[in-house]
Amino acid sequence: MSRLQRIEAFYGYLLISPWLLGFLFFTLGPMLASFYYSFTRYNVQTSPSFIGAENYIYAFTRDNLFWVSVQRTLTWSLLTVPLGTVGSLFAAILLNQKLKGVSVYRTFFFMPHLTPIVAAAILWMWILQPDIGVLNSLLARVGIRGPNWLQSVHWSMPALAMIALWTGIGGNKMLIFLAGLQSIPETLYEAADMDGATHWQKFINITLPMISPSMFFNLVLGIIASFQVFGMAFVTTRGGPAYATYFYALHLYQQAFVSFDMGYGSALAWIFFIAVLVLTIFQLWLQKHWVYYEGAV
Asked: Where are the transmembrane segments (predicted)?
């Protein structure tokens, strides 16, 4: 290596050193520490004591709320990921039309996504208030008695899903779909028109295959984000009523930062990490069978 190359390498490492130090001290270091704590009994006030896999065994065999939180999180994912993905796709299709002022419409669609999670939660708590809320007042005008929404065991999950869809449909997923739609060559649609294809046939045979990489990307990130749901439920319901919205992240928070059982909380975090990792690897394998990459051999 020449002197010039050594100087370039030195300045390169110097420039990335803030990120490397941040990664070592704030990401890798805490991850390794939590891995160790997951095999200990540690409540912050006393020194960690090694107990082997006891925390993991307790989670799967004796912690009833662990399985409640898993079930609630899976239900949330099955409810919000398909609806959010399909909603973002059709929002992108609507905003991909050659209309006057379409950039203004795109801005309006994206604005709810920019709303901070706490602000959105407080806004919707007011809208969904059972007695004086806007939504129930409008329903009462047409003779419908609105439910208790966030205070109802049956309606709290749909209510949170409604809030999540309001903030998410017009967000980053919509922009990714929009970019995918605009990358489709117009010649494909022109050839389909010459063959007499209908709008539905063009959508199924041209649009969906061509945007399948965008759909795959949104699905992966959407599933991971749905597993991490915390802020909205923490602000609005705190996991209630009767654990109806008690998601996995809430259970982890409760154990680690309310009960200060850091050992068990670390074990829950690693169970979550491994589950997400395995699911993501499975999706990467599955995408070979349905995702079309233009130009791929």
From this structure: 12-37, 74-95, 107-129, 267-286
Would the CA dihedral through 281, 38, 252, 72 be positive or negative?
A: positive
> In sequence order, what are the residues at sequence separation of 6 or more whose Cβ sits closer than 8 angstroms to the Cβ of residue 120?
112, 163, 166, 167, 232
Identity of residue 106: R
DSSP state for residue 49 in the 8-state scheme: E
Compute the radius of gyration of the chain from its Cα atoms: 24
pLDDT tens-digit series, residues 49-60: 999 999 999 999
State the pLDDT at residue 99. 82
Report the C-alpha gap between 289 and 275 in whole angstroms: 22
Tens-place pLDDT, residues 103-127: 899 999 999 999 999 999 999 999 9
Shared-domain flag, residues 31 and 60: no
pTM of the model: 0.91
Decide if 212 contacts 177 (C-beta within 8 A).
Answer: no
Name residue 40's beta-bridge partners. Answer: 50
Domain extent at residue 250: 56-288
Work out the angle at residue 175's Cα, subtended by the Cα atoms of residues 171 and 181, and round it to the nearest 5 degrees: 145
Residue 120 has a pLDDT of 95
Residues 162, 21 share a domain: no
Do 102 and 248 lie in a common domain?
A: yes
- 105 and 5 part of one domain: no
Q: Region 125-149: what's the mean pLDDT?
A: 94
In a domain, 237, yes or no: yes
Note whether 138 and 148 are within 8 A (CB): no
Average pLDDT, the chain: 94
Same domain, 118 and 205: yes
Structural domain contains residue 49: no
Q: What CATH number is given to the structural domain containing 163?
A: 1.10.3720.10
Average confidence (pLDDT) over 3-21:
92
